[in-house]
User: What shape does this take?
Amino acid sequence: MQTSPDKSALRRTAARARAEISDKQSVSEQIIDRLIASPPYQQAQTVLWYLDVRHEVRTTWYVQQQLTGALPPALGRRTRKRLAIPYCVDDDLQVFRLDSMDQLQPGAYGILEPKPELRNDPKTQLPVDQFDLIITPGVAFDPQGGRIGHGKGYYDRLLARKGQQTLAIALAFHCQVLDQVPMSAHDVPMDYLVTEDSWMMC
Assistant: This one.
């Protein structure tokens, strides 16, 4: 897949800015709090979360606490959901319904993924088109819903399978939001963009 120089340059710029954030956990907590206080999240019943890697907005702590019921009242109010995570098989993302962090193990690059013996259990499988929300990572975004990922197209292929009612919600640090990012025909725009200081309908 040919990548435009402009998109590559924007990806590098946003990735550098994101990597330089020193207090990612505290800023991530602000982003998560803004997300879960929103009407779309409050009304959702089935949510596909990503588990953060490297410099992404931190989500694993929230998913873990949601599963164990250990959230403080301010973060736990009205947020009990069916949770799932994506994991990579060949060149595509599959979905796994998550009930416990004990179902996971480190995979490639240290990314948490379902234990192989659990992946074919019908109880752990949910169709992508039945989710209310897909919480989406990325490297750069714009207020119009544009998104730049890591260039492999994993999330674009996943989002192409979502239902009409499913909302794609991006989590980002403010420094990742640019005026405009280039979009290709296969790119799937975000419905909402959440940062530490804003909630944007795209």
